[in-house]
Amino acid sequence: xxxxxxxxxxxxxxxxxxxxxxxxxxxxxxxxxxxxxxxxxxxxxxxxxxxxxxxxxxxxxxxxxxxxxxx
Length: 71
Fold this sequence. Notes:
Number of strands: 4
Shape: globular
Structural class: alpha+beta
Helix content: 25-40%
Strand content: 25-35%
């Protein structure tokens, strides 16, 4: 299983409610969470054959930015 981390502009529970249906549509994602306590609002995504660009584009479509954090 792959694990990717992104800096994001997801800032609150309302933001999470907005992105949840969009991220849940991506079949490669098994699980995801956002650390709202971290200043960079880290989005952690786990799944198989994850495509970082697909995740970034999915968030952009609903008004949020994400930047892949290199491991």
